[in-house]
UniProtKB/TrEMBL annotation:
PROSITE patterns: HTH_ARAC_FAMILY_2. Keywords: Coiled coil, Membrane, Transmembrane, Transmembrane helix. One of its GO terms (molecular function) is DNA-binding transcription factor activity. It comes from Flavobacterium cupreum. This is AraC family transcriptional regulator.
Length: 537
């Protein structure tokens, strides 16, 4: 029976997850952390973390095993009976199908995920779902609708998740490219590269260069297009992005055809065909490769080869029609209609009760106008609310600078009043001495420090701090770093990576997530507002 190594006994899930995501470790070491995470979750019957354990395997397992682990991930998520966990699991399973370009299965799973995600107030999951639905709309050629979804995602992810923000930018640039807004596409690609450098996340740079290469080919700047596609293709292949690899071969073929080097062009169009045979996947706009091949062999009077590609194109068109019809039906009847029904409910509930029965059916024009106005109001409301949250955080820091006063809850509790007061006193000393910055701090260590047991300590923290242990520690770290950022101007020029280390977080992702969770604004926004206020003095 496999057991957790002695060196990892007592380590919490955050510790194990950070090691799993550490790019510096070997695959062998990662497998030890993966199985330890899984065993710990299973032993503790922690269904949420067990779902996360299988999600880790979905990410790192070979392609042929990803969907097996995805099924286990959904099973564990359902056992948790938590909508956020179930919705997230289904979404991850859908993404696994999508990456294999099994679009019908992906769409079915996305709709289930959307059902659960809508029950939550989790903006990250809501926008992640919108991003994936946007990808399906892009495939179907609904570029304007996809554009609207990707813009929403950019607005949210820009302040919360760097990689998701860059992914959304890339998707938006691809939409502009396909509708002929080539100048906007170039601007987005340039912005994506600059933002990647600014945030220290350059993994997406080849994708933006690739997108710009395709964009240049589409406006007949073939030499520049070929150069950019060729330079970025190795990274595309390394990421196992076979869909974009096919796109690259197709546009290299179109470029060489435009440069009148038809032999080279045909070689690349044949690469598109080879990938279709291997993957059984074709994007609607890539089918034109077969029209070029048919034309080429017709001119060469090679009737047998010409017939081969004619029959291949007929086969592809039939498959595309079936896939397109299925996805179109799903996205129109089940997703878009549901969105309209929800908008209709919201609009009806806002009407005067006396007029409710007289105004059941609203015209499409009225709905569009209301949605546009709502978007404008929401934009200014969000800016106002973000500023309010910033002012609340600054006020909190000012109060802390003057005096750190702790007020306990006077209501009844399940342990004696004296014991409770003793623990609260210890917590006050713990906070004042900033012991929450110690590495490998866990609930057990804090319970020893407070001279109590973990159960009582958890209850007291939840009762008096209104948070679970991890949330309590994270918010102490966030309050501390926020206070330092305000008082130590040099920190305002630190990167998120550096701030995460200063704050005592094991990763930048956890730091940003904790900062947003505790303050409802991003560290970037907080620093920008501080600088504005300082310059106004």
């Amino acid at each position: 029976m496999i057991q957790i190594p002695d060196s990892l006994n007592g380590k919490d899930f955050d510790y194990l997850f950070d090691r799993i995501e550490d790019d510096r470790i070997s695959d062998g070491s990662r497998s030890v952390y993966l199985i330890s995470f899984l065993i710990k979750a299973r032993t503790e019957e922690n269904w949420e973390e067990l779902s996360n354990a299988y999600k880790n395997y979905v990410h790192y397992a070979p392609d042929q095993l990803k969907l097996v682990y995805a099924d286990s991930m959904v099973w564990a998520a359902k056992k948790s009976n938590i909508d956020e966990v179930i919705g997230s699991a289904y979404l991850s399973k859908g993404i696994s199908y999508y990456r294999q370009k099994r679009l019908k299965e992906a769409m079915d799973i996305y709709l289930v995920a959307d059902h659960y995600v809508k029950k939550t107030n989790d903006p990250y999951l809501i926008h992640k779902t919108k991003y994936q639905i946007g990808q399906i709309k892009f495939y179907l050629g609904y570029y304007k609708e996809a554009t609207a979804l990707f813009k929403e995602c950019i607005g949210y992810f820009k302040h919360t998740n760097v990689r998701a923000y860059l992914n959304s930018l890339h998707a938006l640039g691809s939409c502009y490219k396909m509708v002929g807004n080539h100048g906007l596409c170039t601007t987005i690609n340039r912005t994506g590269i600059e933002e990647g450098i600014r945030t220290g996340n350059i993994d997406m740079e080849p994708n933006f260069i690739f997108c710009e290469g395709v964009n240049q080919c589409m406006i007949h700047n073939y030499t520049l297009g070929v150069e950019k596609i060729q330079s970025s293709l190795p990274a595309i292949r390394a990421n196992k992005d076979f869909s974009n690899e096919m796109v690259g071969y197709f546009y290299l073929g179109k470029a060489y055809w435009g440069l009148n080097d038809k032999e080279k062009a045909v070689a690349y169009f044949k690469k598109v065909d080879a990938m279709y045979l291997k993957r059984d996947y074709m994007r609607p706009d890539l089918r034109v490769a077969y029209e070029f091949l048919i034309t080429y062999y017709k001119d060469k009077k090679m009737i047998k080869t010409q017939l081969y590609y004619v029959e291949k194109l007929l086969e592809i068109d039939k498959k595309l029609h079936l896939t397109y019809t299925y996805l179109q039906g799903k996205i129109r009847k089940e997703y878009d209609t549901q969105q309209l029904v929800e908008e209709q409910k919201d609009l009806r509930s806002s009407l005067d009760v006396r007029k409710h029965n007289d105004q059941i059916f609203l015209s499409i024009i009225s709905i569009m106008c209301i949605v546009i106005v709502y978007g404008i109001i929401k934009y200014f409301k969000n800016k106002k609310e973000a500023r309010k949250k910033y002012e609340e955080l600054v006020q909190k820091i000012e109060v802390a600078d003057k005096a750190k006063v702790y007020k306990g809850d006077e209501s009844d509790f399940s342990i004696s009043k004296d014991a409770e007061e003793a623990v609260l006193h210890s917590l006050k000393k713990f906070e004042k001495s900033k012991k929450y910055l110690e590495k490998d701090l866990n609930l057990t260590k804090l319970a020893v420090y407070c001279n109590t047991n973990t159960k009582y300590l958890s209850l007291i923290i939840f009762r008096h701090k209104n948070k679970k242990f991890n949330g309590y520690i994270n918010c102490l770290k966030v309050d501390n770093i926020a206070q330092r950022i305000r008082n130590e101007k040099v920190l305002q020029n630190y990167t998120h990576d550096a701030l995460a280390e200063e704050a005592g977080f094991s990763s930048t992702r956890r730091f940003v997530k904790a900062f947003v969770s505790c303050t409802e604004i991003t560290p970037k926004y907080f620093i920008e507002e501080l600088k504005k206020d300082d310059s106004a003095l």
